[in-house]
Design a protein that fits this description.
The structure holds two protein chains of two kinds. Chain A is α/β, with parallel strands linked by helices. Chain A has three domains: about 230 residues, Rossmann fold (3-Layer(aba) Sandwich); about 190 residues, P-loop containing nucleotide triphosphate hydrolases (Rossmann fold, 3-Layer(aba) Sandwich), CATH 3.40.50; about 80 residues, no CATH class. Chain A has a six-stranded mixed beta sheet with strand order 6-7-8-3-9-10, sandwiched between helices. In chain A, strands 16-19-20-13-21-22 form a six-stranded mixed beta sheet, with helices on both faces. Chain A is globular, with a radius of gyration of 24 Å. By secondary structure, chain B is mainly alpha-helical. Chain B has one domain: ABC transporter involved in vitamin B12 uptake, BtuC. Chain B contains 18 helices and no strands. In chain B, helix 5 crosses helix 15, helix 6 packs antiparallel against helix 13 and helix 15 packs antiparallel against helix 16. The N terminus and C terminus of chain B are likely disordered.
Amino acid sequence: MRLELKGITKRFPGVVANDRVDLVVESGEVHGLLGENGAGKSTLMNILYGLYGADEGEILVDGQRLELEDPGDAIDAGIGMVHQHFMLVPVFTVAENIVLGVEHTQRLGKLDRERASAEVAALAERSGLPVDPDAKVEDLPVGIQQRVEILKALYRDARLLILDEPTAVLTPQEADDLFEAIRAFTDEGRSVIFISHKLREHRAIADRISVLRRGRIVGTADPRTTSEQELANLMVGRPVELSVQRPPATPGPAVLQVRGLRVEDALGAPVVEDVDLTINAAEIVAVAGVEGNGQTPLVRAVTGLQAIADGEVTIAGRPVNGATRKEVLRDGTGHVPEDRSSDGLVADFSVAENLILNLWDAEPFARKGTLQFAAINDHARELVSAYDIRTPSVATTAGSLSGGNQQKVVVAREFDRPIDLLVASQPTRGVDVGSIEYIHTQLVAKRDEGTAVLLVSSELDEVLALADRVAVMFHGRLVGPFDTPISKEAVGRMMAGADPEEVLGTAPGGQP
Amino acid sequence: MSDEQGPREPTPEEPGHPPDVPSPGDGAVAVSEEELAQAEIEAAKEREEEAAGVTLDATFSQRLVAALTGTSVVVTVLAFVSALVIGAFIIALSEDAVRESLGYFFARPTDAVQASLEAVGSAYLALLQGSLVGIPQLSETLVSATPLILTGLAVAVPLRAGLFNIGAEGQFVAGGMVAGLIGFALTGLPMLVHLPLALLAGIIAGGIYGWIPGVLKARTGAHEVISTIMLNNIGLLVSGYLISTTLFRRPDRADPISRSVEESARFPRLVWWEPSLRVNASLLVALALAVAIFWLVERSTRGFELNAVGMNPRAATAAGMSPGNTVILAMTTGGAMAGAAGAAVILGLQYRLTIGFSAGLGFDGITVALLGRGRIGGTVAAGILIGALKAGGRNMQAQTGTSLELALVIQALIIVFIAAPGLVRAIFRIKADDLQTAQVSKGWGG
């Protein structure tokens, strides 16, 4: 299917989200859509999927003008979308999820489960996306759930598939499988719009890349002849430093010591088991892993947010077991939480208030139970200029800043006080390239000040660029840390559960 | 596609590429650093000017609270206006003359219109005169406003912590009962001791009655809406029983009316030389408590926690705050305010306890807090406004025969309009960011 967008303009009060966007997706093409957060990618795709109406412009499918009132119209026109967050019913089976809304019924409205199951099995077979049609979705790993989402679109005979950040939740190997499926899909003359902020992936899969910046298409590139550096520059609008300048570490004494840590979920099932980890002053240890393998509870337990079921955690000799979150933070731990908007910031609070969110009742920001607004604002103005936070004023609500600048608020708050240990979870998630560059530099600077840094990231590139040692988490257990350099392929295989001895040919080492 | 190095310059057959885009491959800078920074700042400004941010992953209560307090001042004022307009139709239709003229509406439509205008005009004029024009009327407005300010605060403080305190009515009863008991059971005390003691007892009783649902919420997760509704019933029924026991009941009466509060426990009138003016010192107490609450919510470290927990409990926890303690603090403070309202009514106005002495003043607090958009100053202003509506309503009934219930209808309509800001926006064609609206409606559905 050939898709053409002509002069699409979408205005929100005060903002032009899409400004006269022209885009052509040829039949059988994988069209990469690249842009920073807030560049207008999601708005454009939501228009194409019928969720928003465009203020101006038209959508042509195979030369026919298309009127989209709601997603139903888009589906009828053969447009399918796989959202970043899956839209599946967890307690339904794969087949039930796929046929949901277009299901075949027998007499008295009874669902024809066998037919659904058979059809889904045949579709999965045909499209090279094997799934068990009778498995419950909640029992499936994320990579397979994504397949279900894609099959859902294919079942509705999608001839154009929109994939919104599809690789964010996948291991590198799963991503390769996905890419193969995408190729099989386009070989049938279907088209794909592939959205990602990972430059490397665009170069791997896209036939053509359109770059969006501030609501406009600023260029279309051929991935075979364009370097990642050029793409990054085009996306940001200025030359960007992609690699991190990182002098070798000079580790000091042990700061974080974790011994036999076990953390349980609400039902008492172990989510972190038997984890040992030591991080020394002035070194960055990264924990790599596909999300959901226990990194989140590990970080929460280490920083005093979640109960330790068994084992021992100390930071600079102070026990974390039994300490409150407030004590852990005040004693010298900084924590950049993985989910900025839900854990890191109060969106309706001002930038100044967010910058003292964890020091709200400490001198000089409070005296005798009363907030000292003069001190709070002075502090905020200092940090805004020191950390290059782009905000109209310190009284602006944090929620109105761009994602990158919101993250800078969190980073400024956690970095700008004397700390022994810095825990940074997914510090650059959903952050634009320019801010990533900045946050990476700050992380290394913090290390060079003598802080022990625990970096948790599912982005392999980030892990390998920053870490002095790398550990991998899989199913609640930690392997490593291993000294760097270590090959990306080795880490990727361990992320998928491969035995480290097999991967590296040696026993796990690197413990100092 | 292209055999050049780097992204191509836009070509004429590819429309839409702005002609000013240089090729970054040449190392050219498309937008200067400063321009970019400026653009980000502008974008942030614009986003800030947009309506309240309601996030999708907020809990139901949070979305509810955000929806109720996040509306703009304009929407709040228009909600009030809309309620008055609908009230006008109700007045017109309840007027005999209007109904008669509607019988021959198509023959002489002007009759119906004229009769309606007259009815509405005289009713609203009486409403206005009865609340604002003249010293006695102003006094009555302030008398009505005093408990409303306090019960408004009783709802507003928990609202800021993300809690919907429906229990002001029960807390009001608890405060009034205990204040009244101290007021008539102790005798022979000087006023300087007796009155503050009775008031304080009422505040503490209300506070304890608010603390209960707070603790239940913090420790067991019991939803405060459910528990406060049930505690209202318990409070009202138990108070009815207690008033008929010998502990409370007047010895010389068989019906459930309590003994009278001692003179030493009564709030002195503010205009003592003019006995018809009922405005009393409880008004000053209400205003002083409002100032204290303003400090607590807007200026103190506790208030910082309270607001943070109300807007994002997860981030508050991650910052080292304790949402549980904050919930308890907010509910206890709210209960204390409702208790003060109960004490103010018993010690300042009624002097004795009767069954149903709360008369819905606790529920009125919900209207007041919502009309005040959860802000402390706004709640005080809204308390006076609703107080005027009540005082004027009584005058309206006396003067024009329009039922007093109309004031209640208007009050109820105000809540409906505030709770449905989309409705107000639609009526007055105020543009809302459709992204935000979509999010809210999606959030409510899910």
